[in-house]
Amino acid sequence: MHTRYVMRIVVFALVGMAIVGCLVVYGRLFGAPQGGAPLELFIVARDASYGDTVERLLAHGFIRSRWALDVALGSRGVPVITSGGYSISPSFDAWDMADVFSSGPTLVWVIIPEGLRKEETADILSRELAWDKKARDAWVATYTSTKQEYIEGVYFPDTYLIPKNEQPEEVALRLQRRFEEIFAEYAKEARAQNIKWDTVIKIASLIQREAAGSEDMPLIAGVLWNRLAKGMKLDIDATVQYARGHTGSGWWAPITPQDKSIDSPYNTYRYKGLPPHPIASPGRAAIEAVLHSAETDCVYYLHDALKRIHCAVTYEEHKKNIEKYL
């Protein structure tokens, strides 16, 4: 009887030690690295792999074990960590961390390409930030029209990390502030050349829509400056596209001969000078082209089928280029 009693004690002790050991191992793998730690913003880059992200979590002390996070995420049916921003803390255990990542980021990456009119920008923001039609339309009609000079062209093309719950009017201000930050680099040069800032952006928006690539932009800028200096109409297709608006083929479908007769102050085939506002939001290269245009005598240009630009000084030369390249 004494022997059995001792054996029972030994077995219970071993079981208890095993349980304690399992709890220790579990804590070291799945437990929170640091109790009582505050929330921090953790950014997952757009091109970050799952492995890179987990290594960063380990390196910054957010998790104890990659394997434990794999298990926790696997139990949530989440094979990857979506890029974006997350509020996490070293006080989270692996299961808490899996809950956060499986819920998706609270800040999302939004890419605004160069040369978009604000309706196109609104479509991207609506998709990425889950706006409804009412919010999207308000962004176009109200939040981007609070300043007369900010109606178009100042929603800078860039990559943004935006909170999902940021209000549309705040998003408009975010993009405007980014424009102001970027244009501050060019403001001194614009003043030195006695060019108003909105003139720079108007011309840059035309160049952005007309150029086949950044290498064309200084030459197109030189041509446009020449036309303005000679009092010629600018004859820019992109301004007609802007005036025409959306078609079944999008905002920037090729124009027709009939389109050139549209009665709009944006139609530079009918009216001399620059349009009332920019027609799109230009990028850096287009802005720089306005301020550092190529010296040229050309007042005409076209692109061939390979997107190579050809300019001409006279209309007769331009007609020959049309026959040769188009």
UniProtKB/TrEMBL annotation:
Q: Which UniProt keywords apply?
A: Cell membrane, Cell wall biogenesis/degradation, Lyase, Membrane, Transmembrane, Transmembrane helix
Predominant location of this chain? membrane
Q: Where exactly are the transmembrane stretches of this chain? A: 6-26
From the record, what ranges are coiled-coil? none
Task: Give the GO molecular function terms.
Answer: lytic endotransglycosylase activity
Q: In this chain's numbering, which residues are marked as the site (Important for catalytic activity)?
A: E210
Q: Which InterPro entries match?
A: MLTG-like
Q: What is its EC number?
A: 4.2.2.29
Enumerate the subcellular locations listed in this protein's record, separating them with semicolons: Cell membrane
One Gene Ontology biological process: cell wall organization
Domain of life of the native organism: Bacteria
Its cellular-component GO annotations read: plasma membrane
**Entry membrane topology:** Single-pass membrane protein
Q: Catalysed reaction per UniProt?
A: a peptidoglycan chain = a peptidoglycan chain with N-acetyl-1,6-anhydromuramyl-[peptide] at the reducing end + a peptidoglycan chain with N-acetylglucosamine at the non-reducing end
Q: What is the top EC class of this enzyme, as a single word? A: lyase
Family membership, please give it.
Belongs to the transglycosylase MltG family.
Per its database record, what is this protein's job?
Functions as a peptidoglycan terminase that cleaves nascent peptidoglycan strands endolytically to terminate their elongation.
> Can you name this protein?
Endolytic murein transglycosylase
**Biological classification of the source:** Bacteria, Candidatus Sungiibacteriota
